[in-house]
Amino acid sequence: MDADIAGFAAAQERLRGQFGESAVFLQAPVYSYPPGTLMDPDTGAPYDPVVVATASAQASAVVRCDVAYEAFRAGRDRDNEPTALGFLDRAHLMLISGSASRAQCEGAVNVILRGQSYKVTNGKPDGIGGVQRWLTYARRGQ
Amino acid sequence: MSITREDLVSQSVMDHAVAGIAARGYPSDQVAFLESFPYTVPGALTKNLVATGFDFDDGGEQAELGSGLKRRVYTIEFFVFGMTNTYARNLANALKFTLEGDGRIALKDVGQAGTPIIDYLIVEGVSTHRQVVSDPEPWQEFIYTTTVHVHDEYYAAIA
Q1: Label partner for B56 (CA 20 to 30 A): which of A24, A71, B72, B133?
Q2: How high is the ipTM of this complex?
Q3: Is the Cβ pair A85, B91 closer than 8 Å?
């Protein structure tokens, strides 16, 4: 009996349709600065960080994803991390989307989920017996 | 009145830093100062933040024979949390040059109306370091510390 890989992929899509959530994937913004602004060729940003961009454009896409949060752990690694600024929210999540959404997810720098912004830290293809989905890893903080 | 001389030192250095950064043109919607380790929840990082006030001293030493004149060196650390590396590095070093100034920081008596200047702290050195965090959370990616050493001379009996 052969494994029903196609059936597995279809089941994943159905589950995402029922239990998934809409996440907004944001690509890196493109900024325009006032004429004459001295730019750092290494970073592509002005040497003077106080300079405000005159215009910005940022591509975005809404993708249906399953959401998985890192389990809360008691002890030193709690949900809030004590820092010199106070307790900062610490949340790691993984978004699972279909392979067809890879182009919309790959390269994103931020993702907005449930009204909160997360910084994308990694993305990779995933699946069983092949590739059926795209995983996006993100952390709360900016 | 229970305001100690240490309170005057910490507050004077912080006021000097806040005023100096504002004078250099860093707007309040991009940079904010707050107390270190307040154990409250400030929310997500939406601007470049400077956590200040984390300080300690060297225990002091006798400044001259035959008197109670004491010389104490305070070390005060400013933690700079930046939205980008460019901003964090720039702000931390702007803080460094602000604190360095002309080599002294006015010591103000915050316990008196008008906060008069009662003395001057001598700046012995200021340095800036990047704090590299392995497996950083987003707010830990661009952290710098600016550390200033100032010395204060006072009569211990009346401090």
Answers
A1: B133
A2: 0.79
A3: no
Nearest chain A CA: its distance from B68 CA (Å): 36
pTM value is 0.86
Nearby residues of B126 by Cβ (< 8 Å), 6 or more positions away = B96, B97, B99, B100, B146, B147, B148, B149
Residue of B nearest to A140 (CA): B138
pLDDT, tens digit only, all 159 positions of chain B:
688 999 999 999 999 999 999 999 999 999 999 887 776 666 667 899 999 877 889 999 999 888 889 999 999 999 999 999 999 999 999 999 999 999 999 999 998 899 999 999 999 999 999 999 888 888 889 999 999 999 999 998 776
Neighbours of B122 (CB within 10 A): 14
Which distant-in-sequence residues (6+ apart) come within 8 Å of B132 by Cβ? Answer: none
Q: Would you give the distance in Å from CA B100 to the centre of its chain? A: 11
Give B117 to chain A, closest Cα distance, Å.
29
